[in-house]
Design brief:
Shape: globular
GO molecular function: oxidoreductase activity
Strand order of the largest sheet: 2-1-7
Distance between the termini: 38 Å
Number of domains: 1
CATH topology: Ribonucleotide Reductase, subunit A
Number of strands: 7
Order of helices and strands: HEEHHHHHHHEEHEEHHE
Strand content: 5-15%
EC number: 1.14.13.208
Protein name: Benzoyl-CoA 2,3-epoxidase subunit BoxB
Radius of gyration: 23 Å
CATH class: Mainly Alpha
CATH superfamily: Ribonucleotide Reductase, subunit A
Enzyme class: oxidoreductase
Organism: Actinoallomurus acaciae
Protein backbone atom coordinates (compact mmCIF):
# COMPACT_ATOMS: atom_id res chain seq x y z
CA UNK A 1 0.00 0.00 0.00
CA UNK A 2 1.41 3.41 -1.01
CA UNK A 3 0.89 6.24 1.48
CA UNK A 4 0.81 9.77 0.11
CA UNK A 5 3.64 12.10 1.17
CA UNK A 6 1.90 15.25 2.42
CA UNK A 7 5.14 16.90 3.50
CA UNK A 8 5.84 17.76 -0.13
CA UNK A 9 4.57 20.88 -1.89
CA UNK A 10 2.72 18.48 -4.22
CA UNK A 11 1.39 15.47 -2.25
CA UNK A 12 2.29 12.29 -4.10
CA UNK A 13 3.12 8.59 -3.91
CA UNK A 14 5.31 8.59 -7.02
CA UNK A 15 8.59 9.68 -5.41
CA UNK A 16 8.73 13.23 -6.75
CA UNK A 17 11.44 14.08 -4.23
CA UNK A 18 13.74 11.66 -6.05
CA UNK A 19 13.19 13.35 -9.43
CA UNK A 20 14.07 17.00 -8.97
CA UNK A 21 13.57 17.87 -12.66
CA UNK A 22 10.02 16.52 -12.68
CA UNK A 23 9.28 18.05 -9.30
CA UNK A 24 10.40 21.49 -10.49
CA UNK A 25 8.35 21.14 -13.69
CA UNK A 26 5.18 20.29 -11.79
CA UNK A 27 5.81 23.01 -9.23
CA UNK A 28 6.12 25.49 -12.09
CA UNK A 29 2.71 24.32 -13.40
CA UNK A 30 1.09 24.51 -9.96
CA UNK A 31 0.62 28.34 -9.81
CA UNK A 32 -1.18 28.26 -13.15
CA UNK A 33 -3.49 25.58 -11.78
CA UNK A 34 -4.24 27.66 -8.70
CA UNK A 35 -4.91 30.73 -10.85
CA UNK A 36 -7.26 28.64 -13.00
CA UNK A 37 -9.04 27.34 -9.88
CA UNK A 38 -9.45 30.86 -8.51
CA UNK A 39 -10.86 32.11 -11.82
CA UNK A 40 -12.83 29.09 -13.07
CA UNK A 41 -13.45 26.96 -9.98
CA UNK A 42 -16.44 27.24 -7.59
CA UNK A 43 -17.60 30.83 -7.22
CA UNK A 44 -19.46 30.57 -3.90
CA UNK A 45 -17.19 31.86 -1.11
CA UNK A 46 -16.85 29.52 1.87
CA UNK A 47 -14.65 29.26 4.95
CA UNK A 48 -14.23 25.50 4.72
CA UNK A 49 -15.97 22.32 3.53
CA UNK A 50 -16.08 18.79 4.95
CA UNK A 51 -14.03 17.03 2.27
CA UNK A 52 -12.26 13.74 1.82
CA UNK A 53 -8.61 13.86 0.86
CA UNK A 54 -6.72 10.85 -0.47
CA UNK A 55 -3.97 9.68 1.90
CA UNK A 56 -3.12 6.32 0.35
CA UNK A 57 -4.25 4.08 -2.48
CA UNK A 58 -5.28 0.96 -0.59
CA UNK A 59 -8.72 -0.61 -0.69
CA UNK A 60 -9.55 0.41 2.88
CA UNK A 61 -8.94 3.61 4.77
CA UNK A 62 -7.65 5.46 1.75
CA UNK A 63 -9.12 8.87 2.55
CA UNK A 64 -9.15 11.40 5.39
CA UNK A 65 -12.28 13.46 6.10
CA UNK A 66 -12.23 16.92 7.62
CA UNK A 67 -13.11 20.59 7.14
CA UNK A 68 -10.74 22.14 4.61
CA UNK A 69 -10.68 25.57 2.93
CA UNK A 70 -11.41 24.65 -0.69
CA UNK A 71 -8.65 26.88 -2.07
CA UNK A 72 -6.17 25.08 0.20
CA UNK A 73 -7.17 21.55 -0.78
CA UNK A 74 -4.05 19.40 -1.20
CA UNK A 75 -4.27 18.28 -4.80
CA UNK A 76 -1.74 15.57 -5.48
CA UNK A 77 -0.49 12.81 -7.73
CA UNK A 78 -1.45 9.23 -6.87
CA UNK A 79 -1.03 5.96 -8.74
CA UNK A 80 -2.50 2.64 -7.64
CA UNK A 81 0.06 0.18 -6.31
CA UNK A 82 1.86 -1.70 -9.09
CA UNK A 83 0.95 -5.30 -9.88
CA UNK A 84 4.00 -7.52 -9.76
CA UNK A 85 5.00 -8.81 -13.20
CA UNK A 86 1.99 -7.22 -14.89
CA UNK A 87 1.57 -8.31 -18.51
CA UNK A 88 -0.26 -6.67 -21.39
CA UNK A 89 -3.60 -8.47 -21.67
CA UNK A 90 -4.61 -7.79 -25.28
CA UNK A 91 -3.54 -6.85 -28.76
CA UNK A 92 -0.35 -7.55 -30.65
CA UNK A 93 1.78 -7.24 -27.48
CA UNK A 94 -0.37 -9.61 -25.43
CA UNK A 95 1.73 -11.44 -22.86
CA UNK A 96 4.63 -8.98 -22.96
CA UNK A 97 5.64 -7.09 -19.79
CA UNK A 98 3.64 -3.87 -19.32
CA UNK A 99 5.57 -0.79 -20.39
CA UNK A 100 7.04 1.47 -17.72
CA UNK A 101 8.16 3.98 -20.35
CA UNK A 102 6.37 5.23 -23.46
CA UNK A 103 7.16 3.10 -26.52
CA UNK A 104 8.46 5.47 -29.18
CA UNK A 105 6.13 4.21 -31.90
CA UNK A 106 3.08 4.89 -29.73
CA UNK A 107 4.16 8.21 -28.25
CA UNK A 108 1.79 10.43 -30.23
CA UNK A 109 -1.24 8.18 -29.75
CA UNK A 110 -0.73 7.85 -26.00
CA UNK A 111 -0.25 11.57 -25.61
CA UNK A 112 -3.50 12.22 -27.48
CA UNK A 113 -5.45 9.79 -25.29
CA UNK A 114 -4.11 11.43 -22.13
CA UNK A 115 -4.83 14.96 -23.38
CA UNK A 116 -8.45 14.14 -24.27
CA UNK A 117 -9.05 12.51 -20.88
CA UNK A 118 -7.30 15.37 -19.12
CA UNK A 119 -9.39 17.97 -20.93
CA UNK A 120 -12.66 16.60 -19.53
CA UNK A 121 -11.58 17.01 -15.90
CA UNK A 122 -11.35 20.81 -15.57
CA UNK A 123 -14.23 21.19 -18.03
CA UNK A 124 -16.79 19.79 -15.59
CA UNK A 125 -15.53 22.11 -12.85
CA UNK A 126 -16.05 25.05 -15.19
CA UNK A 127 -19.53 23.85 -16.09
CA UNK A 128 -20.53 23.60 -12.42
CA UNK A 129 -18.81 26.67 -11.00
CA UNK A 130 -21.97 28.67 -10.17
CA UNK A 131 -24.10 25.86 -8.79
CA UNK A 132 -23.15 26.62 -5.20
CA UNK A 133 -25.36 29.70 -5.29
CA UNK A 134 -28.46 27.50 -5.61
CA UNK A 135 -27.49 24.45 -3.53
CA UNK A 136 -30.60 22.72 -2.14
CA UNK A 137 -28.85 21.76 1.13
CA UNK A 138 -25.46 21.86 2.84
CA UNK A 139 -25.16 18.13 2.16
CA UNK A 140 -25.56 18.71 -1.58
CA UNK A 141 -23.25 21.71 -1.53
CA UNK A 142 -20.57 19.59 0.11
CA UNK A 143 -21.00 16.90 -2.54
CA UNK A 144 -20.64 19.51 -5.29
CA UNK A 145 -17.35 20.72 -3.83
CA UNK A 146 -16.14 17.14 -3.39
CA UNK A 147 -16.81 16.38 -7.04
CA UNK A 148 -15.07 19.62 -8.04
CA UNK A 149 -11.87 19.09 -6.05
CA UNK A 150 -11.58 15.50 -7.26
CA UNK A 151 -12.02 16.54 -10.88
CA UNK A 152 -9.19 18.97 -10.17
CA UNK A 153 -7.10 16.10 -8.84
CA UNK A 154 -7.88 14.04 -11.92
CA UNK A 155 -6.48 16.92 -13.96
CA UNK A 156 -3.31 16.65 -11.88
CA UNK A 157 -3.21 12.92 -12.64
CA UNK A 158 -3.11 13.51 -16.39
CA UNK A 159 -0.73 16.47 -16.09
CA UNK A 160 1.71 14.30 -14.14
CA UNK A 161 1.78 11.79 -17.00
CA UNK A 162 2.30 14.53 -19.58
CA UNK A 163 5.17 16.06 -17.61
CA UNK A 164 6.77 12.79 -16.58
CA UNK A 165 6.74 10.96 -19.92
CA UNK A 166 6.25 13.37 -22.83
CA UNK A 167 8.93 16.02 -22.48
CA UNK A 168 8.48 19.50 -23.91
CA UNK A 169 5.36 18.57 -25.91
CA UNK A 170 3.79 17.15 -22.76
CA UNK A 171 4.52 20.33 -20.81
CA UNK A 172 2.96 22.41 -23.58
CA UNK A 173 -0.15 20.23 -23.62
CA UNK A 174 -0.42 20.53 -19.82
CA UNK A 175 -0.47 24.30 -20.23
CA UNK A 176 -3.18 24.09 -22.89
CA UNK A 177 -5.41 22.14 -20.47
CA UNK A 178 -5.65 25.34 -18.42
CA UNK A 179 -6.12 27.65 -21.40
CA UNK A 180 -9.16 25.92 -22.91
CA UNK A 181 -12.46 26.69 -21.18
CA UNK A 182 -15.88 25.07 -21.30
CA UNK A 183 -18.19 26.88 -23.71
CA UNK A 184 -15.50 29.29 -24.95
CA UNK A 185 -15.97 30.39 -28.54
CA UNK A 186 -12.23 30.81 -29.08
CA UNK A 187 -10.83 27.84 -27.16
CA UNK A 188 -13.58 25.37 -26.18
CA UNK A 189 -13.07 22.01 -24.55
CA UNK A 190 -12.34 19.15 -26.94
CA UNK A 191 -15.54 17.10 -26.46
CA UNK A 192 -18.97 18.59 -27.13
CA UNK A 193 -20.73 17.49 -23.93
CA UNK A 194 -18.16 19.42 -21.91
CA UNK A 195 -19.14 22.69 -23.55
CA UNK A 196 -22.79 22.37 -22.50
CA UNK A 197 -24.12 24.43 -19.59
CA UNK A 198 -24.92 22.92 -16.21
CA UNK A 199 -27.25 25.70 -15.04
CA UNK A 200 -29.29 23.91 -12.37
CA UNK A 201 -29.13 21.01 -9.97
CA UNK A 202 -31.31 18.68 -12.01
CA UNK A 203 -28.76 19.11 -14.80
CA UNK A 204 -25.96 18.48 -12.29
CA UNK A 205 -27.52 15.23 -11.09
CA UNK A 206 -28.11 14.09 -14.67
CA UNK A 207 -24.57 15.06 -15.62
CA UNK A 208 -23.02 13.15 -12.73
CA UNK A 209 -25.20 10.14 -13.53
CA UNK A 210 -24.84 10.01 -17.31
CA UNK A 211 -21.73 11.96 -18.29
CA UNK A 212 -19.55 10.94 -15.34
CA UNK A 213 -20.64 7.38 -16.10
CA UNK A 214 -19.17 7.81 -19.57
CA UNK A 215 -16.00 8.89 -17.74
CA UNK A 216 -16.09 5.66 -15.77
CA UNK A 217 -16.09 3.60 -18.95
CA UNK A 218 -13.41 5.67 -20.65
CA UNK A 219 -11.18 5.36 -17.57
CA UNK A 220 -11.94 1.65 -17.49
CA UNK A 221 -10.54 1.17 -20.99
CA UNK A 222 -7.42 3.20 -20.16
CA UNK A 223 -6.97 1.19 -16.96
CA UNK A 224 -6.30 -1.81 -19.22
CA UNK A 225 -3.51 0.03 -21.05
CA UNK A 226 -0.17 -1.66 -21.60
CA UNK A 227 1.42 1.64 -20.50
CA UNK A 228 1.52 0.85 -16.80
CA UNK A 229 1.67 4.40 -15.34
CA UNK A 230 -1.52 5.29 -17.25
CA UNK A 231 -3.18 2.08 -16.10
CA UNK A 232 -2.32 2.70 -12.45
CA UNK A 233 -3.36 6.34 -12.66
CA UNK A 234 -6.80 5.45 -14.03
CA UNK A 235 -7.28 2.65 -11.52
CA UNK A 236 -7.06 5.16 -8.68
CA UNK A 237 -9.19 7.73 -10.51
CA UNK A 238 -11.97 5.14 -10.80
CA UNK A 239 -12.03 4.88 -7.00
CA UNK A 240 -12.82 8.60 -6.76
CA UNK A 241 -15.15 8.59 -9.78
CA UNK A 242 -17.50 6.20 -7.97
CA UNK A 243 -18.57 8.97 -5.60
CA UNK A 244 -19.41 11.29 -8.51
CA UNK A 245 -21.81 8.73 -9.95
CA UNK A 246 -23.25 8.13 -6.47
CA UNK A 247 -24.08 11.84 -6.32
CA UNK A 248 -25.94 11.56 -9.63
CA UNK A 249 -27.71 8.29 -8.90
CA UNK A 250 -28.98 9.27 -5.46
CA UNK A 251 -29.64 12.84 -6.56
CA UNK A 252 -32.10 11.70 -9.22
CA UNK A 253 -33.49 9.19 -6.69
CA UNK A 254 -34.33 12.07 -4.39
CA UNK A 255 -35.84 14.24 -7.14
CA UNK A 256 -38.05 11.41 -8.37
CA UNK A 257 -38.96 10.49 -4.80
CA UNK A 258 -40.15 13.98 -3.96
CA UNK A 259 -42.14 14.28 -7.18
CA UNK A 260 -43.78 10.91 -6.57
CA UNK A 261 -44.65 11.85 -2.99
CA UNK A 262 -46.38 15.07 -4.04
CA UNK A 263 -48.19 13.37 -6.94
CA UNK A 264 -49.69 10.91 -4.47
CA UNK A 265 -50.46 13.52 -1.79
CA UNK A 266 -52.26 15.78 -4.25
CA UNK A 267 -53.64 13.05 -6.55
CA UNK A 268 -52.19 14.69 -9.63
CA UNK A 269 -50.01 13.90 -12.62
CA UNK A 270 -48.38 17.33 -12.39
CA UNK A 271 -46.41 18.01 -9.23
CA UNK A 272 -45.09 21.31 -10.60
CA UNK A 273 -47.68 23.57 -8.89
CA UNK A 274 -46.78 21.88 -5.59
CA UNK A 275 -43.08 22.73 -5.74
CA UNK A 276 -41.59 19.62 -7.36
CA UNK A 277 -40.22 18.91 -10.83
CA UNK A 278 -42.86 17.21 -13.04
CA UNK A 279 -42.03 13.73 -14.26
CA UNK A 280 -42.26 14.78 -17.89
CA UNK A 281 -39.59 17.43 -17.28
CA UNK A 282 -37.37 14.89 -15.51
CA UNK A 283 -37.79 12.65 -18.56
CA UNK A 284 -36.77 15.48 -20.90
CA UNK A 285 -33.61 16.18 -18.92
CA UNK A 286 -32.85 12.46 -18.90
CA UNK A 287 -33.32 12.32 -22.68
CA UNK A 288 -30.94 15.21 -23.24
CA UNK A 289 -28.10 14.15 -20.96
CA UNK A 290 -28.25 10.52 -22.02
CA UNK A 291 -28.18 11.30 -25.74
CA UNK A 292 -25.38 13.84 -25.38
CA UNK A 293 -23.37 11.31 -23.39
CA UNK A 294 -23.88 8.62 -26.05
CA UNK A 295 -22.14 10.95 -28.51
CA UNK A 296 -19.05 10.95 -26.28
CA UNK A 297 -18.30 7.37 -27.37
CA UNK A 298 -17.66 8.52 -30.94
CA UNK A 299 -18.67 6.77 -34.14
CA UNK A 300 -19.89 3.19 -34.16
CA UNK A 301 -16.74 2.06 -35.94
CA UNK A 302 -13.25 3.47 -35.57
CA UNK A 303 -9.96 2.44 -37.11
CA UNK A 304 -8.16 4.65 -34.56
CA UNK A 305 -9.67 2.74 -31.64
CA UNK A 306 -8.91 -0.54 -33.42
CA UNK A 307 -5.30 0.57 -33.69
CA UNK A 308 -5.22 1.57 -30.02
CA UNK A 309 -6.44 -1.91 -29.10
CA UNK A 310 -4.04 -3.76 -31.38
CA UNK A 311 -1.16 -1.66 -30.05
CA UNK A 312 -2.07 -2.42 -26.43
CA UNK A 313 -2.82 1.21 -25.58
CA UNK A 314 -6.53 1.03 -24.75
CA UNK A 315 -8.47 -2.14 -23.98
CA UNK A 316 -12.11 -3.03 -23.55
CA UNK A 317 -14.14 -2.61 -20.40
CA UNK A 318 -13.00 -5.37 -18.00
CA UNK A 319 -10.69 -6.77 -20.64
CA UNK A 320 -9.14 -9.48 -18.50
CA UNK A 321 -12.55 -10.92 -17.62
CA UNK A 322 -13.50 -11.42 -21.27
CA UNK A 323 -13.66 -15.02 -22.46
CA UNK A 324 -12.02 -14.67 -25.88
CA UNK A 325 -8.55 -14.48 -27.38
CA UNK A 326 -8.12 -10.73 -26.66
CA UNK A 327 -6.92 -10.27 -30.23
CA UNK A 328 -10.26 -9.97 -32.09
CA UNK A 329 -8.74 -11.01 -35.40
CA UNK A 330 -11.21 -12.59 -37.84
CA UNK A 331 -14.12 -11.92 -35.50
CA UNK A 332 -17.33 -10.01 -36.23
CA UNK A 333 -19.55 -7.72 -34.18
CA UNK A 334 -22.80 -5.86 -34.74
CA UNK A 335 -22.97 -2.07 -34.73
CA UNK A 336 -25.66 0.56 -35.19
CA UNK A 337 -26.25 1.79 -38.71
CA UNK A 338 -28.90 3.38 -40.91
CA UNK A 339 -30.26 1.28 -43.76
CA UNK A 340 -32.99 2.50 -46.08
CA UNK A 341 -33.40 5.48 -43.77
CA UNK A 342 -34.13 3.34 -40.69
CA UNK A 343 -32.02 2.38 -37.63
CA UNK A 344 -30.44 -1.04 -38.11
CA UNK A 345 -27.62 -3.29 -36.94
CA UNK A 346 -24.93 -4.48 -39.33
CA UNK A 347 -21.98 -6.81 -38.87
CA UNK A 348 -18.43 -5.45 -39.13
CA UNK A 349 -14.97 -6.55 -38.04
CA UNK A 350 -14.90 -6.72 -34.24
CA UNK A 351 -11.69 -4.68 -34.05
CA UNK A 352 -13.39 -1.69 -35.64
CA UNK A 353 -16.49 -2.01 -33.43
CA UNK A 354 -14.89 -1.25 -30.06
CA UNK A 355 -16.69 2.08 -29.61
CA UNK A 356 -19.98 0.21 -29.97
CA UNK A 357 -18.80 -2.48 -27.56
CA UNK A 358 -18.10 0.19 -24.92
CA UNK A 359 -21.30 2.10 -25.62
CA UNK A 360 -23.33 -1.12 -25.22
CA UNK A 361 -21.73 -1.70 -21.80
CA UNK A 362 -22.58 1.89 -20.85
CA UNK A 363 -26.20 1.62 -22.01
CA UNK A 364 -26.73 -1.53 -19.93
CA UNK A 365 -25.32 0.28 -16.90
CA UNK A 366 -27.58 3.31 -17.48
CA UNK A 367 -30.59 0.99 -17.53
CA UNK A 368 -29.88 0.08 -13.90
CA UNK A 369 -30.47 3.68 -12.83
CA UNK A 370 -33.75 3.89 -14.70
CA UNK A 371 -34.89 0.68 -13.03
CA UNK A 372 -34.23 2.06 -9.55
CA UNK A 373 -36.02 5.33 -10.35
CA UNK A 374 -38.99 3.36 -11.66
CA UNK A 375 -38.94 1.27 -8.52
CA UNK A 376 -39.46 4.48 -6.54
CA UNK A 377 -42.49 5.29 -8.69
CA UNK A 378 -43.86 1.76 -8.35
CA UNK A 379 -43.44 1.78 -4.56
CA UNK A 380 -45.38 5.04 -4.48
CA UNK A 381 -48.22 3.24 -6.27
CA UNK A 382 -47.85 5.29 -9.44
CA UNK A 383 -48.21 3.81 -12.96
CA UNK A 384 -45.78 6.32 -14.51
CA UNK A 385 -42.33 5.16 -15.68
CA UNK A 386 -39.14 6.80 -16.92
CA UNK A 387 -37.23 5.31 -19.85
CA UNK A 388 -34.01 5.68 -21.79
CA UNK A 389 -34.77 7.00 -25.28
CA UNK A 390 -33.78 5.03 -28.36
CA UNK A 391 -30.06 5.26 -29.06
CA UNK A 392 -30.84 7.07 -32.33
CA UNK A 393 -32.59 9.91 -30.50
CA UNK A 394 -30.98 13.39 -30.58
CA UNK A 395 -27.64 12.17 -31.88
CA UNK A 396 -25.00 14.37 -33.50
CA UNK A 397 -22.11 11.89 -33.69
CA UNK A 398 -22.04 8.55 -35.50
CA UNK A 399 -24.43 6.69 -37.75
CA UNK A 400 -27.56 8.35 -36.35
CA UNK A 401 -26.33 11.92 -36.75
CA UNK A 402 -28.00 12.18 -40.15
CA UNK A 403 -31.53 11.24 -39.09
CA UNK A 404 -34.22 12.55 -36.77
CA UNK A 405 -35.57 9.90 -34.41
CA UNK A 406 -38.24 10.01 -31.73
CA UNK A 407 -37.54 8.55 -28.26
CA UNK A 408 -39.15 5.31 -29.50
CA UNK A 409 -36.87 5.20 -32.54
CA UNK A 410 -39.36 6.30 -35.18
CA UNK A 411 -37.65 8.21 -37.98
CA UNK A 412 -39.11 11.68 -38.54
CA UNK A 413 -38.90 14.37 -41.17
CA UNK A 414 -37.24 17.66 -40.26
CA UNK A 415 -40.65 19.29 -39.92
CA UNK A 416 -41.95 16.49 -37.68
CA UNK A 417 -38.86 16.74 -35.48
CA UNK A 418 -39.23 20.50 -35.11
CA UNK A 419 -42.90 20.12 -34.28
CA UNK A 420 -42.37 17.51 -31.56
CA UNK A 421 -38.91 18.03 -30.05
CA UNK A 422 -40.31 20.29 -27.34
CA UNK A 423 -42.19 17.27 -25.96
CA UNK A 424 -38.93 15.32 -25.67
CA UNK A 425 -36.17 17.79 -24.85
CA UNK A 426 -36.12 20.60 -22.27
CA UNK A 427 -37.73 23.77 -23.59
CA UNK A 428 -36.97 27.30 -22.44
CA UNK A 429 -40.18 27.12 -20.41
CA UNK A 430 -39.01 23.90 -18.71
CA UNK A 431 -35.60 25.39 -17.95
CA UNK A 432 -37.17 28.55 -16.56
CA UNK A 433 -39.45 26.51 -14.31
CA UNK A 434 -36.59 24.38 -13.01
CA UNK A 435 -34.52 27.52 -12.45
CA UNK A 436 -37.41 29.02 -10.45
CA UNK A 437 -37.05 26.19 -7.92
CA UNK A 438 -33.32 26.71 -7.48
CA UNK A 439 -33.30 28.66 -4.23
CA UNK A 440 -30.33 28.05 -1.91
CA UNK A 441 -30.86 26.33 1.42
CA UNK A 442 -27.80 26.77 3.66
CA UNK A 443 -29.31 25.98 7.07
CA UNK A 444 -28.10 22.64 8.51
CA UNK A 445 -30.80 19.98 8.36
CA UNK A 446 -32.99 21.93 5.93
CA UNK A 447 -33.57 21.12 2.25
CA UNK A 448 -35.28 22.61 -0.79
CA UNK A 449 -38.85 21.57 -1.57
CA UNK A 450 -38.11 19.80 -4.87
CA UNK A 451 -36.10 16.84 -3.59
CA UNK A 452 -35.99 14.44 -0.66
CA UNK A 453 -33.26 14.48 2.00
CA UNK A 454 -30.64 11.73 1.64
CA UNK A 455 -31.01 8.48 3.53
CA UNK A 456 -27.53 8.85 5.04
CA UNK A 457 -25.03 11.61 5.56
CA UNK A 458 -21.34 11.63 4.64
CA UNK A 459 -18.83 9.44 6.50
CA UNK A 460 -21.31 8.58 9.23
CA UNK A 461 -22.29 12.19 9.85
CA UNK A 462 -26.02 13.04 10.07
CA UNK A 463 -27.85 15.01 7.39
CA UNK A 464 -28.05 18.04 9.71
CA UNK A 465 -24.26 18.15 10.18
CA UNK A 466 -22.68 21.49 9.28
CA UNK A 467 -20.86 20.24 6.18
CA UNK A 468 -20.02 23.75 4.99
CA UNK A 469 -18.93 26.82 6.96
CA UNK A 470 -19.40 30.20 5.32
CA UNK A 471 -17.24 33.27 5.65
Amino acid sequence: MSTADYQEKIPNNVGLADDRRLQRALESWQPGFRDWWAEMGPELPTEDVYLRTAVNVGREGWAHFGHVPVSEYRWGVFLADPRQDRRIAFGEHKGEPAWQKVPGEYRSALQRLIVIQGDTEPASVEQQRRLGYTAPSLYDLRNLFQVNVEEGRHLWAMVYLLHAFFGREGREEAGELLRRNSGSEDSPRILGAFNEETPDWLSFFMFTYFTDRDGKYQLGTLKESGFDPLSRTCEFMLKEEAHHMFVGTTGVDRVVGRTARLMVEHDTDDAGPHGAIPLNVIQKYLNFHYSVSLDLFGGETSTNVANYFSAGLKGRWQEERRKDDHLLIDRGAYVDAVEDGEPARVEVEALTALNTDLRDEYIADCESGVKRWNRILAEAGLPHRLALPHRAFNRYVGAFAGINASPSGEVLTDDEWEAHKGAWLPTDTDKTFVASLMHPVYEPGKIASWLEPPRNGINGKPFDYEYVHFL
